[in-house]
Design goal:
Helix content is 9%, strand content 50%. Strand 4 and strand 5 form a beta hairpin. It folds into 2 domains: 34 residues; 230 residues, Methylamine Dehydrogenase, Chain H. It has 355 residues and is mainly beta. The termini are far apart.
């Protein structure tokens, strides 16, 4: 038999066999996405997109255009919808929130905020979306069911930037960069209106609340320290020196560790939450900023904004295991739970890592 005939036979067999193999063994991305039903969301500030990534294969499944300068993102409790705060650029002030259907990979609404300028910190709590409007020095609330902003509360502080809500959904804390304060707002009243100002160090920005709700940690860009606030007293109970610019920090789901990104030092710092001691420093080139810890606590995702990569950190080995190239200028990160997950239970606060 000639070589030409053999080649033809091989091609013919392949044409028949390959479709059957694909049906029997689906592509890894499809299989893992179906199995986990979850997605990693990455905001690319330099190209105004939201990248949707398979958290198992680390493949980019699709991109969705957002407004200008998307800085932070949060997903609905059922993982179906993403809310993106369009902060804007140096040249153009942003005033919108992109509402994105994650599975359909399209923006279904551009929520125009009118006079509320530079939306930034954004979280989901009690079924509603809370966000800061930095220029206006306020926190506002969007009700998805009513499709309207139904509440606005002033902080009275300059550059109200980042925002977290306690796990029980009863209180919010904002980091106010220029005022060197953290504002606490009580959500237990029918209309949230009680405000407490907490003095912290220089230029507070990164902020997170412990999983048990007892502590709020605040990274301070101006002095390289972290202030630890007792939520029972709303007072700073401890201050620790951690780096040069601790711009973001994030608790692990079990509350035992805190991850801190320092873009000036090009480091990811791992701290013991109980002892406040340093466990390890990882070198992360390209200005690490946004941090997200996977819900199972096995991995962390760190956005290196200048390298145009999101680093995947193995938290058992405390080493960089992989990287994702999802777009230009990655920063804000969020986790979208599987859409198949029961969403009938009360939604818990969730937030993305941001800048």
């Amino acid at each position: 038999m000639s070589i030409r005939i053999i080649v033809r036979l091989v091609v013919a067999v392949a044409l028949v066999a390959v479709p059957a193999l694909v049906r029997a063994f689906p592509l890894q991305t499809t299989a893992s996405q179906a199995a986990t039903g979850s997605a990693l969301l990455i905001l690319n500030k330099a190209e105004n997109t939201l990248a949707i990534v398979d958290p198992v294969t680390l493949r980019v499944l699709g991109k969705v255009a957002t407004g200008e300068g998307p800085h932070e993102v949060v997903a609905s409790a059922d993982g179906r919808i993403a809310y993106v705060a369009n902060y804007g650029t140096q040249q153009k002030v942003g005033n919108s929130i992109s509402i994105i259907d994650i599975s359909a990979r399209r923006e279904i609404k551009r929520l125009e905020l009118g006079p509320l300028l530079r939306p930034h910190g954004i979280v989901l709590a009690n079924g509603k979306v809370y966000f800061t409007a930095e220029v206006n020095r306020v926190i506002a609330r969007y009700d998805p069911a009513q499709d309207r902003v139904d509440w606005i509360m002033g902080t009275g502080q300059s550059i109200t930037h980042m925002l977290v809500v306690t796990p029980d959904g009863r209180r919010a804390y904002t980091a106010n960069i220029v005022s060197d304060t953290v504002t606490q707002i009580d959500f237990t009243l029918p209309v949230p209106q009680q405000v407490t100002q907490i003095q912290v160090g220089k230029q507070p920005e990164g902020i997170d609340v412990s999983p048990d709700g007892r502590e709020v940690w605040v990274g301070q860009n101006g002095d390289g320290q972290i202030s630890i606030i007792d939520t029972g007293t709303n007072k700073v109970k401890e201050t620790i020196k951690v780096g040069e610019v601790p711009i973001r920090l994030k608790f692990a789901p079990d509350g035992k560790r805190v991850l801190v990104s320092d873009p000036k030092a090009s480091e990811l710092i791992v701290l013991d939450a109980a002892t406040r001691k340093e466990i390890k420093r990882l070198k992360v080139e390209g200005a690490p900023v946004g941090i997200l810890v996977a819900p199972d606590g096995t991995r962390a995702f760190v956005a290196a904004i200048q390298a145009n990569k999101v680093m995947v950190v193995d938290l058992s080995k405390l080493e960089i295991a992989a990287s994702i190239e999802a777009g230009q200028g990655p920063d804000g990160l969020a986790w979208a739970n599987g859409a198949a997950k029961d969403s009938a239970t009360s939604p818990k606060p969730t937030s993305g890592a941001q800048q």
